[in-house]
Design a protein that fits this description.
binds flavin mononucleotide, alpha/beta, 13 strands, 8% strand, 2 domains, NADH Oxidase
């Protein structure tokens, strides 16, 4: 079987092979398959067993795969013609900041092909293959089976499970590219695991569309709010002193009516409010009416009906009940559209404010809207302090400025650079600032609904802010929320009563225009999360938009993974040919930048900055077998060290400006809540896999989801590169076992010394791996089962992280041996995920070499590191960023007027 639209990338290095400092012999699996299909030298195999060399010797040996290229060998043959028609439409650049709306969970059969050599798949039409072939990266190494085989799911029984002969062939070093042929081993088994819900046959196009976005597109043109002239201020009105007006007619003479506070509303003269002066009048009207009485009068007679049923009706039964009366009407289409439009077009504004004054009646309408917000126990805990004085605004500006500086100092360099360009307040640029407070005592001691949740008071005030914000938008007023304040400092500076909380500081004024997208999105600071990520049906995790079948996070993720885009790849090769340097002179960097282009579907590709390393931490039951010299509690202690900033990964992350985030996916002990720690414990450590499975399949899936969600969060937060890291005492034992399963290499060859163990302990470790494999006989075609048998929680999470990154077309820089093991599992789940992977470094652990060979990934850094924590990936980040930056900044022969060869 073949999938003609898919082409594999073999990022076979055209550069000189790595020259390891010390090596013993070649691994069982040289990446020879690429040689079958490409004229360029295949990536040089690295030794399977590498004796941990003396660090000093390493430091003295400058040879490295990337740093010492041989340009002659590296002339990338760019395609004769750039690819013209990508199979997959490039992402709409205008909406590039939006995360892709995931496709409906499809019938994904997790296949376990045997992709050989480098397998960064390329999405390409058949006609593109020729140019793609000509490049050193894009090698049409056979046609991989598509990951999604709907018919396989529809008729799993018709699938002919492939004999594991291929795995044997692999183990024997007979890898052939065609081994990717239908290695659809036991699809039904994996599908059953991964597709708990009935599969959804609808094509992607039929997925319910998130309503807000399409509507925004449709109406963007007609709305054109920015073209509306700013309302002409009415100075006469603005200067009119509002007169006291008894707006509220006393009511409830019998004492049973609505309790209206009989304070005369200080409303402006009605005539001063035209044309929209009805709003205050309406508000007054509301006070005059007695909502309870009106309700009572209009009470439908059928209200008693449900009481007849002794048992509460189930939702489905309720739905079947014939409605006695029609429900209260909603708004008509135009009115509804106006409501939705104001929500869609509300923006937080910091730029482009005008100095036009805001007429009193306009501000009054806005404040009235705020004042109609819902509140806990109807406590209405807000106050609005309207500030116009330049002096007060200046002092507020100073306070905000000092908080801005403090925040900037706390940021990783990659983020700080971005932040420097951002405007985060417009205190001095706006004629009106409004402080919105919450009084946590308002409503008295027994405020309904606040009994156990004191935070409901500030929440209520936040709702008032939203009302204000929307009403302001409808008036053509921009609002910018500033939270760069020390609240207590502000309370003092403004002379507010000490018992008040400050909920919001708002800058309000007329603006030149309302941007269509959040300013932070436009600046690349963040991306919009799709609605489908956040809507769950019945239970958390059963994600489904109304009317759609619940989908499984892993299925959804796999469905979104695509090969590299051939058009962008072609453009990258073309550009590299025209850059002012000899063709191929950037060696492996050219391959990386082409991969980044194909991944992002953009040429030049986005510079992968900011970046974040996610350190997945977990413990291992196999620790009990004496496979490491370190006590298990060191995992938790090192997590504390990462969070305290004292580990090697922190130093390296600081050097390259990356964020460090630590994910507790399975540390044995409870960890205190700390900034930077994501508490996502699936279970406190795995079970000892020498006596039983390490994990249940459900736990594996939960840990994979942790990884996917971590990738989603980091990408939505604006990160453009993800780095894997891990911490788990004894996890090299699990890594070795996983690598054995996926390479077929003997445990003695892939089991390393981890954190440093003596011969006796090493022999025991090898024996432990062997025994576990004998006990479980893990089937490589069942990646979930493999992880359940001998994996670790951090391996599963890293596999998910990698799949998540790939599904979001974001590069994932892999760290050491555990990341390599996780990548093997991820590849077994979705082979095309490798398109997003970059091997950061080559660890001194022999298993890592075997894993990289199997993955066909060439490491960028080769310094005999064996630490984990993401350290090798962090070192490689700069190389990856340099590769992308060169594509942006290096002049072309034509632009620089340099004569070509
Ligand atoms: C509670 C809250 C605090 C905010 N604080 C700030 C702030 O201090 N500075 C800033 O520039 N934007 C601030 N914002 C605005 C957000 O950045 C903005 O709402 C977000 O980027 C989405 O953009 P949009 O409001 O235009 O949709 C705040 C928003 C909220 C809801």
């Amino acid at each position: 079987m073949s999938a003609p639209e898919d082409v594999l990338v073999a990022p076979a290095a055209p550069v000189a092979p790595a020259v390891p400092v010390e090596q013993q012999h070649q691994p069982a699996q040289p990446v020879q398959s690429a040689a079958e299909v490409q004229p360029e030298p295949a990536p040089q195999a690295v030794p399977a067993e590498t004796v941990v060399p003396e660090p000093v010797a390493v430091a003295m040996a400058p040879a490295g795969p990337v740093l010492v290229p041989e340009p002659e060998a590296a002339q990338p043959e760019a395609p004769a013609e750039p690819a013209e028609a990508p199979v997959q439409a490039p992402a709409d650049e205008a909406t590039a900041q939006e995360l892709p709306e995931p496709v409906e969970a499809q019938q994904v059969v997790v296949v376990t092909p045997e992709p050989e050599a480098q397998a960064a798949p390329v999405e390409a039409a058949p006609e593109h293959r020729a140019p793609v072939q000509a490049s050193p990266v894009v090698e049409p190494v056979a046609q991989p089976e598509p990951v999604v085989q709907p018919e396989q799911v529809a008729q799993p029984e018709q699938e002919q499970p492939v004999e594991p002969a291929q795995a044997v062939a692999v183990a024997e070093g007979q890898e052939a590219v065609v081994a990717r042929e239908p290695a659809v081993a036991q699809p039904e088994q994996v599908a059953a695991e991964l597709t708990p819900e009935p599969v959804q046959p609808e094509p992607v196009a039929e997925e319910p569309v998130e309503p807000a976005e399409p509507v925004a597109e449709e109406t963007a043109g007609e709305a054109a709010p920015e073209q509306e002239p700013a309302p002409t201020p009415e100075p006469a009105v603005a200067e009119t002193e509002p007169e006291a007006a008894p707006a509220i007619a006393p009511d409830a003479e019998d004492g049973t009516g609505p309790e209206v506070i009989e304070t005369p509303e200080l409303l402006p003269e009605p005539q001063a409010q035209a044309p929209a002066g009805e709003a205050p009048a309406e508000a007054a009207q509301q006070f005059e009416e007695t909502p309870q009485r009106v309700e009572a009068e209009q009470q439908p007679v059928t209200a008693a009906q449900p009481e007849e049923s002794a048992e509460p009706l189930e939702a489905a039964e309720l739905a079947e009940q014939p409605a006695a009366t029609p429900p209260a009407p909603g708004y008509d289409d135009a009115e509804r559209e106006a409501v939705l439009r104001v929500m869609r077009e509300r923006r937080d504004i910091r730029n482009g404010f005008r100095s036009d004054p805001i007429p009193h009646e306009v501000l009054l309408r806005v404040l009235e809207a705020a004042h109609t917000a819902p509140s806990v126990g109807h406590s209405q805990p807000w106050d609005f302090v309207v500030i116009r004085s330049a002096e007060t605004r200046r002092s507020m500006h100073e306070l905000a400025q000092s908080q801005r500086d403090a925040y900037a100092k706390s940021l990783p360099k990659g983020r700080a650079k971005q932040f420097k360009e951002l405007k985060i307040e417009a205190i001095l640029d706006t004629p009106v600032n409004i402080v919105v407070t919450a009084d946590p005592t308002r409503g008295g001691r027994h405020t309904l609904g606040r009994h156990t949740q004191p935070q409901m008071a500030p929440y209520s005030s936040a709702l008032a802010v939203e009302n204000l914000w929307l009403a302001a938008r409808a008036e053509g007023l921009g609002v910018g929320w500033v939270s760069f304040f020390d609240e207590r400092e502000m309370v003092r500076a403004l002379g507010l009563p000490e018992h008040l909380e400050v909920v919001a500081y708002l800058c309000v004024g007329y603006v030149d225009e309302f941007p269509e997208e959040p300013e932070l999105m436009q600046a690349g600071w963040s991306k919009r999360r799709p609605l489908s990520w956040v809507v769950h049906e019945e239970t958390y995790g059963r994600r489904a938009l109304p009317g759609a079948e619940p989908h499984d996070l892993l299925q959804e993720t796999i469905s979104a993974i695509r090969p590299l885009d051939a058009k962008a790849l072609g453009e990258a090769w073309e550009r590299q040919k025209r850059m002012t340097k000899p063709a191929g002179a950037l060696g492996m960097l050219e391959i990386i930048s082409a991969q980044l282009s194909g991944l992002s579907r953009m040429c030049p590709p986005p510079i992968p900055e900011p970046a974040a390393v996610a350190i997945f931490a977990g413990d291992h039951g196999v620790h009990a077998q004496g496979v490491t010299a370190w006590p298990q509690e060191v995992t938790a202690q090192m997590v504390a060290n990462f969070l305290g900033g004292g580990a090697v990964c922190n130093a390296f992350a600081a050097q390259v400006g990356a964020e460090v985030c630590v994910v507790d996916v399975g540390v044995a002990t409870d960890l205190p809540a700390t900034p930077g720690l994501l508490p996502r414990k699936v279970r406190p450590g795995t079970a000892d896999f020498t006596t039983g499975p390490a994990l249940t399949r459900e736990e594996v899936l939960a840990a994979i989801e942790v990884g996917i969600e971590t990738a989603r969060d980091l990408v939505a937060a604006g990160n453009k590169a993800l780095l894997t890291g891990e911490m788990g005492i004894a996890n090299t034992t699990a890594s070795a076992a996983l690598i054995c399963v996926y390479t077929g290499i003997d445990a003695a060859e892939v089991t390393g010394r981890g954190t440093g163990i003596n011969d006796e302990m090493h022999a025991r470790k090898v024996d432990v791996v062997r025994r576990a494999l004998d006990l479980h006989q893990p089937d490589p075609a069942d990646p979930i089962g493999v992880l359940a048998a001998v994996g670790g929680l951090e391996h599963a999470a890293m596999a998910g992280f990698l799949l998540g990154g790939a599904s979001l077309r974001t590069p994932v820089i892999l760290d050491g041996v555990s990341a390599g093991a996780a990548a093997l599992v991820a590849r077994a789940i979705a082979p095309e995920a490798l398109a997003a992977c970059i091997a950061g470094h080559r660890s001194a652990e022999p298993g890592h070499v075997a894993a990289l060979n199997k993955l066909g990934l060439r490491p960028l850094v080769d310094l005999d590191l064996r630490l984990g924590e993401g350290t090798g990936a962090l070192l490689a980040l700069l190389i990856v960023q340099s590769a992308a930056r060169a594509m942006h900044e290096v002049a072309t022969f034509d632009s620089a007027g340099v004569t070509e060869k």
